[in-house]
Design brief:
By secondary structure, this protein is mainly α. The chain is 54% helix and 7% strand. Bound molecules: iron/sulfur cluster.
Amino acid sequence: MKVLFTGIQPTGLLHIGNYYGAIRNWLDLQYKYDSYISVVDLHAITIEYDPKDMRDNSFELALGLFACGLDLKKTKLFIQSEVPGHAELTWIFNTITPLGELERMTQFKDKAKQHRKNVNVGLLDYPVLQAADILIYKGEIVPVGEDQVQHVEFTREVARRFNARYGDTFPECQAELTATPRVMGIDGDSKMSKSKGNFIGILESREDIWEKLAPAPTDPARVKRSDPGTPEKCNIYSYHQLATPEPELTEYVAEGCRTAGIGCLDCKRKLLENLMKVLDPIQERYATLSTKKGEVRDILDRNADVCRKVSGQTILEVKERMGLTPIWKI
Ligand code: SF4
């Protein structure tokens, strides 16, 4: 079975952008590949953050991911900083990475603009840590959105460079693009994100979600109830396409929009109904898991143990090849 690696930052909550943009895809892939899924807290500390929230945020995210349907027994969900090999391999990869390549990364340029007062080395080195995350488990499959494809390419380059210099060690991974690469925020202006406040949280109540949906912008052509609209120009319709699995129901909404057969509020109510069919079971599982936090913590501990063993083997192999002293010989 090929190895899959992917990561998600502990930002404090999961929203439907995370769910439809990434997590739903992982739920299928976890049975196809030997899956390592990491709460990447070492990545999260490259920008300003509050240390007192970090540990709770990481645990809550893990809880949320299990509630979404990650297999508690099969998928190795773990917290990145609990596996020291990631940082160790990053340093090793730093020594074979040209600085210019990192400076050219689109995400670095964007983040450097966004966080002008904190352009730290970690921000620049982010793709190297990502390469280490993947390659330490000899990952071959990396489910990502389009904005991360450049980093997967970079990881392939790191593997090639290492293999050329020290001998064949790492596979060349490939990006597995999600079917929904970009979920727009409820404002319809930019990608859904916690920092922009334009999200629908997966644990939000029906009433709270409705408060966000009801005033959300739609196709501006639908000024009056009798004005026909173009669903493809409406962000609400894009949510229908995600949340309504039955094509005939999506078509019913599209047709109703084009002919002014349904009003925008009816359309949004239908969306809420379909969205809650997905979110209700997640919220129920979350409530159950929240009463068993000790068990969830034990699972994360066991997963971290497995990850330390697997990554430790890779570090040993790397050190042998590089002429460094493996720790067990000291
Ligand atoms: S009917 Fe639905 S798809 Fe059409 S504009 Fe209104 S909310 Fe959007």
